[in-house]
Design a protein that fits this description.
There is one protein chain. This protein has helices at about 20-35, 40-55, 55-60, 90-130, 130-145, 150-160, 165-190, 195-200, 205-240, 255-260, 270-295, and strands at about 5-10, 15-20. The protein has about 300 residues and is mostly helical. A two-stranded antiparallel ribbon has the order 1-2. The longest helix has about 35 residues, at about 90-130. The protein starts with 6 loop residues before the first strand and ends in an 8-residue tail after the last helix.
Length: about 300
């Protein structure tokens, strides 16, 4: 049998596809993400650049982010300091580069916390149904009535400020969004024919969830996680700006904007550059997440 005509089974025998299909599917996915959706490619490029900057911060940053030069305070952008210096003479570019590490770490860990807890709640509510579903849905809807920033502030009032507490607070505040989406996807997949067939032959509930439901809701969960990374970074910056997040002198974009707020007329670059970086980061994650959604959802491809 030739490669093109060879067949294999997917989803426990749900349908047969050519052996060469995975390569075609991957190519269509990459084409949709980086060629058809050019904005998604731009977002992915910026996200990749941020990740590289975070990894190579000791090499990329021209100065020590905490080194003070009191004789060179409020220096405007120049060849020596491309983004100028702050009220303590610290290089703004170096602090932004090192702040990338903190912002990306916060975004990733927040999403991990929210995804794990949200998946447990969403899968339980969507698969079990009945009173369990109604109870968990009511709890999630009640929590979603409060803005994420307000929930994070309330939790930080209990835990106290600090990097790890910010991650926990924002992560817990993001759980309702993930639980709601995963619950809706689980209810849709739960009624599919291959799940009914697996249940009829005696498959355990754990096997059905892990083998059939979880892989089929993974795409929407990945898309949600990608977009929520940007939201988590913005929330952390907002908390740091309010003095409830990361403590100085740790280089945080929110702290940098807060420090430059009092010098907008004298030295606007102190707050301008970190603010622009926060905006670009949030936009790039949103563009990348939208591209992932379009690339993973065949219904949005328009038959391409």
């Amino acid at each position: 049998m030739s490669t093109k005509s060879a067949l294999r089974l997917e989803n426990g025998g749900a349908r047969a596809v050519p052996v060469g299909a995975p390569r075609t599917v991957r190519w269509r996915f990459l084409r949709e993400l980086f060629i058809v959706r050019k904005s998604a490619g731009v977002g992915a490029f910026i996200v990749g650049a941020l990740v590289l900057a975070a990894i190579a911060a000791p090499i990329v940053a021209p100065y020590d982010p905490s080194a003070q030069d009191l004789d060179n305070r409020y220096a405007p952008p120049s060849q020596a300091h491309l983004m100028g210096t702050d009220p303590f003479g610290r290089d703004i570019l170096s602090r932004i580069v090192w702040g990338t590490r903190i912002s990306l770490a916060v975004g990733v860990i927040v999403v991990m916390i929210a995804t794990v807890i949200g998946a447990i709640l969403g899968l339980t509510a969507g698969y079990v149904g009945g009173g369990v579903d109604r109870g968990l849905t009511f709890l999630v809807d009640m929590l979603m009535a409060f803005p994420l920033l307000l929930v994070a502030i309330a939790l930080l009032a209990i835990f106290g400020a600090g990097l790890y507490n910010v991650m926990i607070a924002v992560g817990l505040g993001s759980v309702p969004m993930f639980a709601r989406v995963i619950r809706a996807e689980t209810r849709t997949v739960r009624d599919r024919d291959y799940v009914t067939a697996a249940r009829s032959i005696g498959a355990t509930h754990l096997r059905i969830v892990m083998r059939y439901i979880l892989p089929n809701i993974m795409a929407s969960t990945i898309v949600l996680a990608t977009t929520r990374i940007g939201t988590a970074i913005l929330t952390e910056s907002s908390l740091s700006f309010l003095g409830l997040g990361i403590r100085p002198p740790t280089p945080s974009w929110g702290i940098m904007v807060a420090e430059g707020r009092a010098y907008l007329e004298q030295a606007p670059w102190i707050a301008l550059f970190p603010g622009v970086v926060v905006m670009i980061t949030l936009l790039s994650f949103n563009l990348f997440g939208d591209g992932l959604r379009d690339a993973l959802d065949v219904r949005l491809r328009g038959g391409r």
